[in-house]
Queue: 3 jobs
Job 1
Amino acid sequence: MTNLAAADSLILLIYFFFVLAVGISLKPLVASGRGFIQAERALPAWICGLAMTMASLGSQEIIGMSAAGAKYGLASIPFYVLGAFPAMLFAGFFLMPVYYGSKARTLPEFLAFRFDEKTRVLHAALFAVLAVFSAGISLYAMGRVLAALHVFDEPLRAAGLESRGELIVLMAVPAALVVTYILLGGLAGTIYNLVIQFLVLCAGLLPVVFLGLKQVGGWNGLKAAADLSMFSQRQGASGHVGIAAIAASAGLGLLVAMGTWCADFRVLQAAMAAKNVESARRASLVAAAARIVAPLLLILPAIVALGLPTPHTTIVIHNENGAIYHDITVVPPEVDAGQGLVPAQLDPATGKPMKDSRGRTVLDDAMATPNVVLHYLPAGLLGLGIAALLASMMAGTAAGVTAFGSVIACDLWRTRAHEQQGEGKPVAVARWAAAAGMLLAFGVALAAIHFGDLPRTMSLIFAIVIAPLLATLLLGVFWKGTSGHGAFAGLISGAIAALLHHGLTLPPGAARGIHGGWIAPLHHSSSGLDLNIGTGILAFGVSLMVTLAVSAFTKACSDGKLAGLLQSLAASTPLRMDMRIPLGMLFTLMGTILTAFGLSTRDNVGFYIRSLNIDVNLWWGVPLLAFGVVTLTLGRRGQAAMEKTANREQGSGNKTR
């Protein structure tokens, strides 16, 4: 068990402080409905782009990338990188100008402008379920990973908590932090924190990637480690990925990414807060560039984990001054039965490592990257590594709860009939909705503790909500003949098709229920992945065909209404806060702590054994300190220029009056 040192705890506390400080500093600036729900539509492209990237990296995606790296090796990289890249470029060039130019605050509201109210309410209700469920599963996944790392066991057990109580606390504390900065700063607070979390993720995991590649011997060692993945062993292939594997992986990734980047409001809300239509378009391009970084930070350490020595229980006998000593190193059974640093899954009934039908150990692939973080990072930098994992896992929860509050306030409570009401009420409703959304999400997380297979339903919910919407949106944006009745029928038919396909199909070896076949197992897919992909494709196809068919026999919107959807808005009044100031302060403090800790421990011979005898606290602390100082300096200059411009505009306004 690894315990956190004082320096680790201090870095975590600093991260928590800045997360809350961003929300507190933005509270006076988001008093209006436009400020709270849309961040005044005034944010620059780079902030919106990084926020989009981080919003797409919730707990499920983080764990999924780690598991994919351990299970599929290098073949998983095209799925997450090459597959997502075209979808993000498509969204930036073709869809974001339409979404932004429509003046819609949410994606369901865009459906109201493009189609009708019934389509808006239907998707808003379905999306609310998706947002709450995804936020809850993210909380559960976050708590499960933190509990499995055992870094917080000592203080929690000192408080008298058992394993289940520890898991609940590890879910509750991040949930409280997330909902606090959402209630204080609204969408702007969420977006700014997503940017901080992305940079913390990079700062915490880059040293792990460098140390891992150094130990396994660079690219050749990484390919050798990838040979140990289940995919390579099953195919009898090399860790080197061929053209066919790259194409297949990228194709599957494109299918999933199109729904995420073109039709998921949890991600799109960041781009819709940009200061103008050109910034909204560029935000997707910034996100496409940043998206390349994240999979490398999460997948490469997982592959490295396969190639490292597997810990085993050992007994060393030695004689010292005539006395015989037995040094016994005991590792848990799941670690002893694992591969490298990837532990085995334990059977809940027996507590022993699980075996598949061929007698091979079933690995808990999701723990690959988190275990490598613990393996390489010494005290001091370990706190930054844990902060990186926390940041990545809090991001998905924040994006889901923020989107839930906006949809409730704008689409399910404040419909177009309420537009003449004051600005105070929408803000209050959005805040109460966000708080209620977090409570519901926490309830989902608690249910996932009792029903371990509950997270597996996320792919079904995604297929029900997002896949039909993608088909409807693509038709609505590119074909003016798409009618409101057609869109409504397409959404319903796509959702029903997804439910029927999932209920009638069962993967091999799976029990009927959440895994599929809950109606009747009339068809058997080759794997659970095939079932999920097939369900999404069928929902998309059925929605597309039904929307086309119904639209052909019903009246579409007039050309005058459609023309309004393509007009962009003028730039809004900017939020008077330079994002580089809190970023610079955060990394200056973290860099100072790591540098000082590295200098004070550089002569300790045994302190840096796990980091290959490299004083990574010092070598990584100095660049972080330099980055923080430069960023803070630029931020202060930018803030001064911003205030000077504001004063000039105010003076001009006074003269005019």
Job 2
Amino acid sequence: MQTEAEAMKKIHCVGVLVVDLLSGPIKQYPVPRVATQINTESIRIMPGGGAANTPSALARMGLGVSVFSKVGDDFTGDFVRRELGKLGVETSGICVSPRDSTPFTFVGIHCDGERTFIHTPGANVTFGLSDLDLDRVLAADYLLYQDAWVLAALDGEPGASDGDAEAGGRGSGASGIGDLKHIRAERARGIRRSVENTIA
């Protein structure tokens, strides 16, 4: 059980929010002009992405956590913010875009348990530093930077060296925990410069 001091720590998470729709079991996908429809037995819709999964787990543990991400001004964006809010996750740092759709993934669950995905990246394509209040993001005891490799406007090109990923300096005193191996040093450096300790 966490101490009162631990419960008061500020945890901020920057990353991807996605609405996942899971359906199955799927024996085979439809084939145009041959078998255009299939039926499944179940369907489930839930928030996904690193900026949903980790904060949800932390909130269930009684820890205070805030999310900084981007969704569309649509019913799926409303859904993911509402569901996170129910768990006690602070969602006011989520940028709502009138031009982009909320990221969405159809998850096909096959009879053997394997999963396949049809993904619409939506707001992930345009999510960048201009969508973040960096002063607010960095005012944290712990900064989690997740899903970095899918945020091209924030990270630059994927596949940066570990040396690039470790190029962030020391600043605000926040401890950074993130998927940083693919982040270019010249992009998103406004976030990484604040990180006291980076665990890639």
Job 3
Amino acid sequence: MIRRFAWLLAVALAGTAYGDVLILKNGKKLSGDVKETETSFLIEIEGEDLTYSKDEVEKWCKSPKDLLGDAPQLVEEAKKLYLEAVDIKDDKVAQAKFHEALPKVTKAREAYAEARELFPDGYPDLDTGLVNIMKLMRLIRERCGSEIASSPPPIKPKGIAPLNPPPAPPPPPATPPPPVNPPPVNPPPPVNPPPPPPVNPPPPENPGRPLGERIVEALGVATSPEKRADAAEREKARDALGGRSKDRGGAMPSFAVALATFLSRDDKDWRLVVDRVDVKGAGFEQSWSGKLVRRSDTSSVLYVGRQEVRLRKGPDGMYLTPPGGSEFRTESLKIQENLKSDALVALQEYLTTHSLIAISGFAASQHLKEVRFLLEKVKAMRAKDAAAPVDVLLLFAAAHLDALLSAGVPEPAAFDAAKLVGWDKAEFGNVVGTKDGLAVDAYHRWLAVGLYDMAIVEFLQNYAQSSDLSVRYVFGMLYLFRAIHVNRQYERAYLQFEKIAQAAPNQKVREHLQALGKSIRGASVCRACEGTHELRCNVCRGQGKGNFQCSSCGGSGKLNTVKGVRDCRSCKGQGRFVNMDCPKCKKTGKLVCKAKGCTKAVPKPTIDSFCEALECSLCAGRGVLFDHVALPCSECSGVGLFLLPKSDPSKTIK
């Protein structure tokens, strides 16, 4: 496993050349190809040669061991303290042990993470150490999480993304040109324009009404297919629930989250009711089910998840463009609309016959009964059709399961029920979900404590092979947050997004990822000059002046002439020039950086240098809907945000 992990890490860092590390006396650390001369060190970074005299260099590190110091010993000490604390019955004494272990493992993590950053290639023992530290830190987090789970968010949203954005308004009519000699007109009195409306204000939280009453009101809409088809009715019900409330945990809040999420879309968006397209072509037949949107009399689009099937009526028949394919003329094409699914039948049974208006009084056994009912339905439908539209059933099952797992000591039967649909238990904590869901959940939990390096270690070890867009997207975000935190290695972030773009499910997602990668490339800091676009002159070492050997006499001060040995006229027999203006940098002490990709000065980036963010209006930026069930938000796919790339803010993912 570790060998495979090391290989994945090497692949993830492909395209970046590192070598040894120079630690300067001013604390700066440089990674590159180091060469030693009699009086100085030469380090090559991104094609640029930087020279430092030996009295400027504190240490030349040729392997990670030179950087780790006492980190391995600190890990063993922290591990010993943890094991001792686990066996202590006195909670106060045990907590003291945990708090004693915490700074030791934190210091070791910093040393190992820095060593891996500066020595990214090879050294599998370093990877083993990082994995062990990650596990130990997670264990300590479980015991005293309140002490370390407090880090400011790495990105602050500029607003809230609308849940159902209205269509773009038509362009204003062209203004006619003014007459050549316009008659004088008395200007009307000035009118103060009305203030602009707030951007997608959050629905009221209804603090004066009990949540139970609001759930009953929302169920009146949720149980009626006719009312669910009315966007205004759904929005009113979500407002009653307080759709953006961040309170979670317990039966009613979990169910309210599920109910508000369900009401954020209509039945077609949930694929409970579908439109079906059956097509015959040259030697093949194919069917797609999704939501059909007619754009004109001759053009329609069938949305199948993130993919699109385009239909066009031509003069000689119907044409179809499959996802990722080219348009072709069909031999026959059949469209069936508003087909009801088995999932819709199961959902109606659940919503109307399971006494959900009394959910506040449900015992654990009743929640477990609901979980089993819904997940057994899901299992049966998937057995018939692996692509069955079961998302809503999983949503409500997750709400009941979250209520069960919120208990101090959850019943083992709750974890057994989750296995009906292949949900696994996380290695740490009472959290269940699919592997991809657990990855997104882990992303948000690591972000909450600001440990981006540990998050990257976990993703490389457990989720690097995932093909899920959400998992790969948040992986790129981790690289970006880590780069901003240490102000280096931005290439890992933009290479990740550009790599995801190659396998994007549709053109809109592909263009968004490409624009995000371009934004990061354009505002990234050069590794050689750290964004200044200037380097210290390696001749005068930044002084602008220096003592230089005479090039005419080679420093001897003498020249052989036909009349014998004479003093050099250039240096007047001194062999060198003292305190002379540097000829290379023209006494500025600086040279233009010509490292690969460095074309201009770039200030130290923040997240705003690359993109702006809008908070997901459905999950309020949480990304996952529940505390104990790793079910990514259906609106933002678990990211919690919608990013607007600086290179082109119109290239959004949705």
